[in-house]
Amino acid sequence: MGSPLDRARRIVIKTGSALIAAKGAPRRNWIDGLAADIAALRAAGKDVVWVSSGAVALGRPHLGKGSQKKLEEKQAAAALGQPLLMSAIADALAPHGIKAAQALLTLEDTERRRRWLNARATLDTLLAAGAVPIINENDTVATEEIRYGDNDRLAARVAQMLSADVLVLLSDIDGLYTADPRKDPAATHIAEVLELTDAHDAMAGSANAGAGVGTGGMATKLAAARIAFGAGCATAITLGDRPRPIEALRTGERATWITPSVSPDTARKAWLKGHLTPEGAVLVDNGAMGALLKGSSLLAVGVTGVEGRFEKGAAVAIKGPDGVVIAKGVTAYDAADVQRLAGAHSDDIEVRLGYRGRPAIIHRDDLVLGS
Ligand SMILES: Nc1ncnc2c1ncn2[C@@H]1O[C@H](COP(=O)(O)OP(=O)(O)O)[C@@H](O)[C@H]1O
Ligand SMILES: N[C@@H](CCC(=O)OP(=O)(O)O)C(=O)O
Fold first, then answer.
1. Hey, which of 52, 154, 173, 203 would you mutate to test ligand 1's pocket, going by the most ligand atoms within 8 Å of its Cβ?
2. 69 is in an annotated binding site
3. Which atom of ligand 1 has the smallest separation from the CA of 214?
4. Is the pLDDT higher at 353 or at 216?
5. What pTM value is reported for the model?
6. Which of 149, 224, 232, 350 has the largest count of CB atoms under 10 Å?
7. Which domains does the chain have, with CATH numbers?
């Protein structure tokens, strides 16, 4: 059967602070090993996104003395540590001919549809260019209310946004146990979860019950796995501190695999179907209707007009020439721009808008057929 990693097209890997840093310095040998793993995945044609913690841990020694418990002290440490984190990772990827691209996200980038479209387009562009996006929370500006707070969930949101097939959470433990093995020596390992229940949450205890340097614990890993699960993405929780942790996972080293029964594509379409309440409509001609039914994106050339006012990122209905709703989707343009683009060929988009817009009014990934 092989590993889910072999079948995956897109993989998100999350590394916790304790793997990245020791005594305030980057663990270069370990980072080099993971970089070699990532190079092997890239060579096999897979897209890889690396969500890495460690900015606070690497920045702390440079902030001076003091407790460094206050939020602004952690944020300042992150500002000092983030470039150190990036350069350690970029240096490790460079010998493999892989470019590292920094992307610092805040909660809004994955929760607000408009920003989500932008973040996704940028990350897709980086992946298409062969780069590995290195993602962290934008700790320096994220305030308590608008924080993911832990990179486990951030990584799951990224996996969801990018329709990844596998999320790997590299941890200081080789998976989920029936209880915290640090406290209960009788705890047993769980190799596979096909449905996440409250019983699993009870095993993990509360958040922040982890080893110390980071902010996660097993509870946030399960919260992350739940987000990924809903997006049709499998999660592996496994021991990170191995020389080649991804290769070890691929060849069957111990892990907990949390595996959904549907694909990312099916999950996304089901989500769209249930969550989109149209705020307006885009009117299309017969040609566009035929293309949509065949699974294409909605291009400006087939648009004849709009109904109502809506923002970029809003849910809209798509209506055929007879006024019947044939699909719903998330629009990449606001109503005024859709009107401006009606009937335009792709080459004309820039002239009509005054900027270089996206080719699709609604991308096929953001579209579901039916009313
Ligand atoms: N049921 C459980 N199974 C496994 N680990 C658990 C469980 N409950 C609590 N934990 C704790 O969670 C820790 C992993 O979280 P954490 O140290 O935050 O990892 P990371 O630094 O990789 O984010 C484990 O070392 C373990 O002590
Ligand atoms: N964004 C923070 C890390 C937050 C976090 O989730 O840490 P961890 O539990 O080690 O993955 C940083 O870079 O220090």
1. 173
2. no
3. 21
4. 353
5. 0.89
6. 224
7. 4-264 (3.40.1160.10), 276-369 (2.30.130.10)
300 within 8 A of 342, measured Cβ to Cβ? yes
d(CA 364, CA 163): 13
Rounded distance between C-alpha atoms, residue 136 and residue 164, angstroms: 17
> Interior CA angle at 371 toward 265 and 157, to 5°?
30
The better pLDDT of the pair 120, 371 is held by 120
The pLDDT tens digits for 161-170 are: 999 999 999 9
pLDDT of residue 174: 96
CA–centroid distance, residue 198 to ligand 2 (Å): 25
Residue 225, judged by CB atoms within 10 A of its CB (0-12, 13-18, 19+), counts as buried
Looking at all shown ligands, the one closest to residue 182's CA atom is 1
Q: What is the pLDDT of residue 2?
A: 82
SS3 of 218-244: the string is: HHHHHHHHHHHHHCCCEEEEEECCCCC
